[in-house]
Amino acid sequence: xxxxxxxxxxxxxxxxxxxxxxxxxxxxxxxxxxxxxxxxxxxxxxxxxxxxxxxxxxxxxxxxxxxxxxxxxxxxxxxxxxxxxxxxxxxxxxxxxxxxxxxxxxxxxxxxxxxxxxxxxxxxxxxxxxxxxxxxxxxxxxxxxxxxxxxxxxxxxxxxxxxxxxxxxxxxxxxxxxxxxxxxxxxxxxxxxxxxxxxxxxxxxxxxxxxxxxxxxxxxxxxxxxxxxxxxxxxxxxxxxxxxxxxxxxxxxxxxxxxxxxxxxxxxxxxxxxxxxxxxxxxxxxxxxxxxxxxxxxxxxxxxxxxxxxxxxxxxxxxxxxxxxxxxxxxxxxxxxxxxxxxxxxxxxxxxxxxxxxxxxxxxx
Length: 365
What we know:
The longest helix is centred in the first third of the chain and has 31 residues, at 3-33. The protein has helices spanning 3-33, 63-71, 93-100, 113-123, 142-147, 174-191, 218-228, 249-269, 280-305, 309-321, 326-352, and strands at residues 50-56, 80-87, 104-108, 128-133, 137-138, 155-165, 202-205, 232-244. The termini are far apart. It contains eleven helices and eight strands. By secondary structure, the chain is of the alpha/beta class.
């Protein structure tokens, strides 16, 4: 077998494994071994004291509604502290949060979302710290479901499920991707621990919280850091939130490009490629879901250059057709542009570095 053919088959095999083989293998393993679910609180058990942290930067459009949503959660009010931690907003966000009834508003100089969250955790009175984006709305029972697994002393972090909605229509296929991603994380959680979270809805034991580099978001870094320290990070599938998505595929690709600039900082110097301290099964999960995911665009290039150019040309033509080719064209365009955003995010990080500050994506508020 030639080197050219070996390279092509290896690249195509890695892509097929990461996108399809890995989820099927996890499903088969769970069917064979059964789920390893954490112990949850029993009816009548007192809930933990929870601090719900909402990091905000220029969120005047949504902060009052978010605070109202937090205060309306079906959770004992004397066990819930609602904290808005502001990252140097210039649009009156702190004042609006206070008027909306937040228990505490922390004003920070502009330093990025992670540093604003760190400040809130240091000041938190709860034993568990929950986090949410300012534009994410939680279902009334979401917090109760999110903190229930902390009855298991092995659980250090829980991750809820977010649904992305596009009420004004558009071409973005992020909702489809996230349904796939949530199913995959559910399988990971049942077998070991999830390999990543999401900013819309998650919670951490205060004594397990890790302060990370401000350019490295919690979504990707906290789960594997906590697993390395001996904790489990599990999904709480009934803890649900909704968040507006960017309306267009092109806008989503631009958002992912910015996100990947942060993600590459984690890959290259945040320990994501270091398997020390992880259980063997979790190493396989990280390699399949994270390492190969970020290698995706480079695997596509390798496959195309070593002979798989016809299939890639067909995919590119379908993506270029976009909505003219119906749902298949939209999905192909989403896939191609988001794969490109991984490589573009790397180029941005290498050329310019990554800033800790963040801006809301257009159309998500």
